[in-house]
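Give me the fold.
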Amino acid sequence: MRLTDIDPLFTPGAVAVFGASDNEGSIGGMVFHNLLTGGFKGQCYAINPKYDQVAGEPCYSSLKELDKQIDLALIATPAQCVPAILDQCGSFGVKAAVVHSAGFGEHGDRGVALQEKMVEAAWRNRIRVLGPNCLGVMRPQHGLNASVGEVLPRRGNVALVSQSGAICTVMIDWAESCGIGFSAVVSLGAAADLDFGDILDYLALDTQTQCILLYVEGVRNARHFMSGLRAAARLKPVIVVKAGRHPAGTRAIKSHTGGLVGMADVFRAVTERAGVVQVANLEQLFAAAQVFGTRRRLSGERIAIITNGGGPGILAADRAVDLRLTLAQLGDTTRQALEQALPDYWSHGNPVDIIGDAPPERYRAALDACLADPDVDGVICILAPLLFCDPMATAQHVIEASKDSRKPVLTCWMGGQRVAEAQALLSEHDVPNFASPEAAVEAFSFMATHQQNQKLLIQSPAPLSYENPPDVEGARLIIEGVMAEGRKVLGTIEAKAILSAFRIPTMQAVLTHTPNEALMAAEALGFPVVMKINSPDLERKTDVDGVKLNIDDAQSVRRTFTEILDRAKRLRPDARLEGITVEHMVSTRYARELMIGVFRDKIFGPVILFGAGGTQVEVLGDRALGLPPLNAFIIETMIDRTRIARLMGAFQNMPPMNRVALAKILQRVSEMVCELPEIISMDINPLIGNDKEVIAVDVRIKVDYRPSQQPTYGHMAIHPYPSQLIEQVQLPDGRDFIIRPIRPEDAEMEQEFVRSLSEQTKYFRFMQAIKELTPEMLVRFTQIDYDREMALIGVIEHKASTIALGVARYMARPGGQACEFAIVVSDHWRNLGIGARLMRSLMQNARSRGFRIMDGEVLTANTRMLALVKSLGFRIETDPQDLAIKLVTKVL
């Protein structure tokens, strides 16, 4: 089962170049020349009605004259010719095309219309298109240079995907000097059809690729981008550099590709949740490529620094602290080994200063000791070219020590000419080397960030909790009532009612219209009270000094009512003033002022924000962002990333704040965002927390109508765990089993399930002989994207443990109309109807997701499976290309 079908783009057998020419400087001529000289082992043909020959090769007027099977078309013609060329390609079975031509979406309304016409032609002819306005694609292992880039990079295990062709050429040139090779280079251009999601799907399963680098300017389809990003990051490291983080860059991108750009800190939250590493610039992108290309991974963030100079060691240690890395505490065994190998006057700590006269053997002894320490996760080795050092011999010792350990070893051979040969030797043996101690530490931090973000990736929160479920329908009715009145901003009473529906503690508010009403409310609620202006037109009540605290007597209530109202009328005569709300004053003893917000990013949808509250929120900028849905792990990670988190513990005479209550409120806000797509923004500020409770003091909510065709959870970038699909089913013998979507934590059970299958059942399921799932397969099978695929597992309690009875899954095919299924049932639980029950649930889910066709491949010898699908109404046909396979199809 494969998510994409773009193999012809990466492994074509025959390529046709439309617009090939001998004209100097022509794009078509350049592309054809690159194909001929790059070592491509397939066939390449020139298509141009103006020529009989190009570059000494025959040139054809059209595919009809050529009359050959073509896998990939490279188009370098005027933009207006492209749709007709795609129609021609479709007539001759071409499956993929690269459009190098410019003059589309980046050239105003006419270009946008032409681009739409091109995309329509591509989809009409079932051709996947890369571009337009792109450099092209390179596949060094196959000698394929289907690009305008002059040089085919060296072969390697790093893939580069970029929205900028210029960045591709820069990276290729830079990589050559660093000894980095590529498995693939893809320039997306305007990404009118194929985009990041499609290419990431392919590279995730590409055996030649071990690490993926992305240069991102803008994202059009957030869900597709997130799906591809998360799928790839589950299997191999993905490193991203994001352009357009500031307004000036954003304007340049819009003029460059016509792409949309979200907020920079939202994009960082996206990458964290996707399990990838975001870096700040191209230099860091290369640094990350070096460390991840070694296939070494961190198990923690404890770093040991070995140096022959105190200054470089201090610089490295300072940078490690800046990046929140932990300087490892060396164990007793390690210290004893170092005492024996080093002079008496070594640093006796970390950094391990082995003194300026250190010979290569001393480096080796220190490195072996640190790598053997279980409290050390990785080592940075620094060499300053002092008088007695031997850079080459020391590099050789480091290379040998690195080979003997699974922990990452990063090096920094400082200087120029004296260490150049040693630096080249380290690179040749895949030992990352950096020009400065700080750069080496930053590279180590990328590995630590990857490990931390991978923990976020495997989280699969449900949209709702089972404990004290919220009144979703009641909240929705309140919102519908507000919008029916033509309003988009909820009043204070309405907004607090929404919070109460989701079990978020609030202070009761009473809306009053006269000084006497305010007094009666104050007497009923109890002094002291808070009085606030109530207006749908005021973003912040403080803008009109519309909040007064600690009002503790009757006369002050009536006087304050008049003062607040008069001041608001004077400062904002245009605002609708609906009255004054009166609330009991929350005790500020031991209190921390916090805030929780929700806003709608134009690309990635709803985002939840947490940080310091009150008037500090805009001044301090202390906030952490998270994409819903959230769970306990994600919530704790968000809280810990803020500075206000340090104030939640005990200090001076203040007891620790109730973080459990805070986490519950964040969980409820996540549920609110999932279930109420009408919410555009929300500010709970302040949120007062002390040692006993956390309570929402003030809230503002904006709403709007959801798009009519939007599916459930379609407003979110990440599809939540579909807990609504969990169902209990009874077996014929009366025992109950559960059918539910698979989860990442099912990995061990899934592996044991596959191991327990008979050899024949394994062969029928995987169409090859396997003993167990590889680590990559296990990740792919249990960490799924519920938006475009589904895996339903049947489980039962058996002999004091939970075991799997069977698994049925589907994956979406390109185009979104069809999905491919697979199913396997335990040999020990046959003839109980489990397979049929799993398939019916799977088909129902696929139907609800909008799929029209479900298909699959079944071995002809698998008579049980053929009987099952026949009973479910599948049409069965023999594969004309392989008589041993039956093609089964059902219209849903």
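The first strand starts at residue 14 and ends at 18.
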